[in-house]
């Protein structure tokens, strides 16, 4: 050894330990934050402590300072011993020793960067192999040892012929391993207390992802829905006790080694079985929960007991009864909260789904008392509205603080909104300072969720069996076809026959199914409301959109070619079908010919249904994309406007022929009697007859074949003609010549919608008239006893009856029809029905909540303008009475057939509908202020009340009784 090398070795053994002990990290942290690391946490002066207590900037500077130490030590040794790399390892050993004894740190950063400077290839291989193993297994203690072993192995393989080098490498990694056992680990500190900018990085290097925690994004298919839900809530910022999950089949030892239960910090062991807490099966009470786990031995036993409970006979039977496949049990371990008040909360009443309050059951003490079933909890009803929550019944006499109840109710509804409106069952506890969420799951008996919105406009009112037996498969079939176009293989497992159902004999759409469909399509669950009613629409995730891009492009192609396809089908199917069924009059058709006529209409009706659904959706989509207001469009080709304008033109023509001043006092019947006695009048009557033949297929509810058409009962149309004759309307003029290209694109879809509606309504009218003719046969031979009986039979029953394949049906037919008529009348008598129904309600009678004499109702703006007047409730067209410009009509719905009545009013309020509904179109045509979608308006408002209708803002103000 030369003199230079001698001095170099002395310098390494003296300078490197001093360099390692230099507290640069402590100085950096104190300089930037004013905090002394030696007095915080573990007392270590380390890189991880700098990140934890100082934040990201302090941590990065700490890394740079320690990296500089390691690189300096290597370069120092290389200066004196350029051909002896073993001295570089010795310099790192001296550096680490000083780092531990004087600097209160392990020296990991020093060694890593020192090895990078020493042999970057060895460093790279160590990082790759060690990093991959750590990322996969996520257990930091064994990960460190694996990393050290890999480092020693790689260094040895790089110098296989140098025994002193191999010894130095082993000594270096051995020293680090020994130090790891001697000093506390900053990564054991709770990550939630770390500086905000460092938490994610800190949690990653903690390595407890080997033991999945509630801080991680968990997959319900791997760890059960309970753990996955709590994980999501915790990551969203809700207060959920810290917890860790043992997935099925995993070794519990790492978890047992990681957790340290004690009397001061007890744990609770809970089940999180695959399939538990699903939308259809809660498995409540099937598996066990172990509280007050205070030792590792007790924890191990509790985990085993929880896993074993999956195979209990009662749990096995529960899964069998619900057709669930056997899966596995994940175990959830959480810090136990000592509750001062605890309980459960239901976002919707599981006993009475029509109750709008949040139901809370609570008691002083832990949550286990409430859910055990051994103690009767206090029950509270809390109303939650836009302005917060307010106590309901039973909330004044209990022990639970009022403010706590309001907070629980508010959070419960928040979580319901978070899960797309699916009613939630929440378990909670309050420790005196903090409200903790212990569980959240769906209320299984409130599935699925049914909505009357849109359905109430498509097919309103109480529906008879024949109408529904035809309408449901048509509607569900077409919706299913549209969704399959987009979803392709992802449509598997979806039952599109469940798209619609009847409650109280009113139509409802399956909001749960539609929400799932739209989520699979990559669209927000409110998409249907957006397309049909103008509801707010959140931006779909880019990933989902890209995944569904092929299907969306197929649907876009259908939309783009919709007009061309309609013209093709009009030529192929619609026109030939109308020619065929009109060739043979109904009065000359036999029973078999009538049935053939029905068989001819139904497949064509299915095709027309496709256009009657897709054309309005296409119109709404284009209107939203191009931001075209309804006022910019010409509605003249829609049946409701075309029929009204044509009748108004006839009234203008009649005014030129008749002595109007002499007839001014005539009522509708006396006017038509006068017309029948004069030549000019007979000419007018003939043209009115032709008008009726052209538009007589329209009715109060075009989609309901049980409802008579105008041509069957022309009295409302005669009344409208009389009004037009004496009070000529001034319909809106559409400046079609000035339409911009965007408006023209939307206008094409509006015109197509009008044509599709006309063909669809005409086919339904012909179907109705065929069934009425069929009924006449059975009335004559005594099979049926009263007009309208046939509409209380289902289509399949009529089919079997004609084929004589159900002789037992003939025997019980009178009783069956009478039973259904009675039920129909009962449902007609229901004062109102809810727009949202949870599950399958058993309540047969519903009543509306009273509205104060003065109030404000918010709906959908449908036709601009302000009108004041007196309310007239009009539930059916049989209750018309006197209507003038001072009348504010309040109706349950609007259809093409309502035009005759709506055009006579000063303002319109409808319970259902949107800016594109029939009533809105008619209102805009005649400049009548209108508001749609005022829920339960025909019962909240009363005849004679004075109200103000603001059609621009969509507001109805009640001025006086």
Let me know the number of strands. Answer: 22
Report strand order across the widest sheet.
15-22-21-17-18-19-20-16
Which runs of at least 5 residues are low in confidence (pLDDT < 50)? 204-209, 530-534, 843-853
Globally, the shape reads: elongated
Percent range for β-strand residues: 5-15%
**Termini separation (Å)?**
112 Å
**Percent of residues in helical segments?**
40-55%
Mean of residue pLDDT values: 82
Main beta sheet: 8 strands, mixed
Please work out how many helical segments DSSP would assign: 36
Whole-angstrom Rg: 39 Å
Structural class: alpha+beta
Report what the structure shows:
This protein is α+β, with helices and mostly antiparallel strands. Helix content is 50%, strand content 12%. The protein has 36 helices and 22 strands. The strands form 4 sheets. Strands 15-22-21-17-18-19-20-16 form an 8-stranded mixed beta sheet, covered by helices on one side. It has a 6-stranded antiparallel beta sheet with strand order 8-7-6-5-9-10. It has a 4-stranded antiparallel beta sheet with strand order 1-4-2-3. Strand 12 and strand 13 form a beta hairpin. Helix 26 (639-655) crosses helix 30. It starts with a helix and ends with a strand. Mean pLDDT is 82; it is low at 204-209, 530-534 and 843-853.
């Amino acid at each position: 050894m030369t003199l230079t090398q001698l001095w170099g070795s002395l310098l390494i053994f003296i300078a490197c330990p001093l360099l390692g002990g230099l507290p640069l990290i402590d100085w950096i942290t104190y300089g930037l934050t004013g905090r002394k690391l030696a007095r915080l946490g573990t007392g270590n002066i380390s890189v991880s402590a700098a990140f934890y207590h100082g934040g990201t900037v302090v941590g990065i500077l700490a890394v740079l300072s320690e990296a500089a130490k390691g690189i300096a030590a290597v370069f120092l040794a290389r200066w004196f011993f350029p051909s002896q790399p073993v001295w570089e390892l010795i310099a790192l050993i001296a550096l680490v020793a000083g780092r531990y004894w004087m600097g209160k740190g392990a020296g990991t950063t020093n060694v890593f960067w020192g090895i990078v400077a020493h042999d970057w290839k060895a460093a790279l291989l160590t990082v790759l192999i060690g990093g991959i193993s750590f990322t996969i297994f996520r257990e930091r203690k064994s990960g460190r040892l694996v990393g050290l072993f890999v480092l020693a192995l790689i260094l040895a393989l790089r110098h296989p012929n140098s025994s002193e080098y191999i010894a130095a490498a082993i000594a270096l990694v051995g020293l680090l391993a020994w130090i790891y056992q001697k000093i506390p680990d900053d990564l054991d500190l709770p990550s939630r207390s770390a500086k905000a900018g460092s938490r994610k990085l800190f949690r990653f290097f903690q390595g407890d992802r080997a033991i999945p925690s509630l801080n991680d994004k968990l997959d319900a298919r791997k760890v059960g829905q309970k753990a996955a839900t709590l994980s999501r809530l915790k990551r969203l910022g809700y207060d959920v006790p810290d917890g860790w999950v043992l997935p099925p089949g995993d070794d519990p030892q790492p978890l047992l080694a990681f957790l340290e239960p004690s009397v001061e910090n007890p744990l609770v062991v809970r089940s999180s079985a695959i399939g538990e807490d699903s939308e259809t099966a809660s498995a409540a009470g099937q598996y066990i929960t172990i509280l007050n786990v205070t030792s590792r031995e007790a924890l191990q036993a509790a985990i085993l007991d929880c896993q074993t409970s999956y195979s209990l006979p009662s749990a096995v039977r529960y899964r069998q009864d619900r057709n669930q496949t056997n899966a596995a049990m994940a175990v959830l371990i959480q810090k136990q909260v000592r509750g001062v008040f605890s309980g459960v909360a239901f976002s919707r009443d599981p006993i009475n789904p029509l109750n709008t309050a949040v139901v809370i059951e609570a008691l002083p003490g832990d949550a286990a008392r409430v859910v055990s079933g051994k103690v009767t909890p206090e029950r509270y009803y809390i109303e939650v509205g836009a302005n917060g929550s307010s106590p309901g019944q039973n909330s004044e006499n209990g022990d639970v603080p009022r403010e706590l109840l309001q907070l629980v109710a508010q959070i419960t509804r928040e979580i319901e909104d978070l899960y797309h409106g699916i009613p939630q069952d929440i378990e909670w506890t309050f420790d005196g300072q903090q409200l903790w969420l212990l569980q959240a799951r769906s209320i299984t008996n409130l599935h699925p969720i049914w909505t009357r919105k849109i359905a109430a406009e498509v097919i309103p009112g109480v529906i008879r069996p024949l109408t529904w037996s035809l309408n449901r498969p048509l509607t569900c079939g077409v919706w299913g076809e549209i969704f399959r176009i987009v979803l392709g293989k992802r449509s598997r497992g979806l039952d599109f026959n469940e798209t619609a159902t009847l409650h109280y004999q009113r139509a409802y759409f399956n909001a749960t199914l539609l929400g799932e469909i739209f989520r699979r399509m990559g669209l927000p669950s409110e998409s249907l409301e957006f397309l049909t009613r103008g509801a707010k629409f959140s931006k779909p995730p880019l990933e989902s959109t890209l995944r569904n891009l092929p299907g969306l492009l197929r649907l876009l192609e259908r939309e783009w070619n919709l007009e061309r396809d309609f013209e093709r089908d009009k030529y192929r199917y619609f026109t030939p079908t109308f020619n065929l069924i009109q060739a043979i009059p109904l009065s000359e058709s036999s029973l078999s010919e009538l049935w053939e006529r029905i068989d001819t209409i139904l497949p064509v009706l299915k095709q027309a249904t496709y256009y009657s659904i897709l054309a309005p959706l296409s119109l709404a989509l284009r209107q939203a994309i191009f931001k075209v207001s309804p006022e910019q469009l010409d509605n003249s080709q829609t049946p409701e406007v075309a029929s009204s304008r044509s009748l108004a033109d006839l009234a203008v023509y009649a005014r030129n022929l008749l002595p109007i001043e002499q007839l001014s006092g005539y009522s509708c019947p006396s006017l038509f009697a006068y017309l029948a006695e004069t030549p000019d009048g007979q000419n007018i009557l003939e043209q009115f007859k032709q008008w009726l033949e052209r538009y007589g297929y329209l009715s109060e509810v075009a989609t309901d074949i049980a409802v008579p058409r105008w041509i069957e009962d022309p009295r409302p149309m005669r009344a409208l003609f009389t009004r037009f004759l004496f009070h000529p309307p001034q319909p809106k003029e559409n400046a079609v010549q000035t339409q911009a290209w965007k408006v023209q694109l939307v206008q094409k879809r509006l015109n197509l919608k009008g044509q599709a509606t006309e063909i669809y309504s005409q086919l339904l009218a012909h179907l109705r008239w065929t069934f009425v003719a069929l009924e006449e046969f059975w009335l004559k031979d005594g099979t049926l006893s009263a007009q309208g009986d046939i509409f209380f039979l289902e289509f399949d029953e009529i089919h079997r009856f004609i084929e004589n394949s159900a002789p037992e049906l003939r025997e019980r037919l009178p009783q069956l029809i009478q039973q259904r008529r009675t039920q129909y009348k009962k449902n007609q008598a229901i004062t109102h029905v809810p727009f949202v129904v949870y599950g399958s309600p058993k309540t047969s009678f519903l009543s509306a909540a009273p509205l104060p004499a003065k109030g404000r109702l918010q709906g959908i703006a449908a036709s601009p303008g302000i009108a004041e007047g007196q309310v007239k409730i009009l539930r059916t067209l049989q209750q018309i009475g006197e209507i003038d410009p001072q009348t504010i009509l309040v109706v349950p719905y609007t259809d093409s057939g309502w035009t005759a009545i709506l055009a006579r009013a000063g303002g319109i309020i409808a319970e259902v509908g949107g800016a594109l509904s029939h009533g809105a179109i008619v209102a805009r045509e005649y400049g009548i202020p209108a508001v749609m979608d005022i829920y339960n308006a025909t019962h909240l408002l009363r005849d004679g009340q004075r109200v103000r209708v603001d059609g621009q803002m969509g507001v109805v103000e009640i001025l006086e009784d």
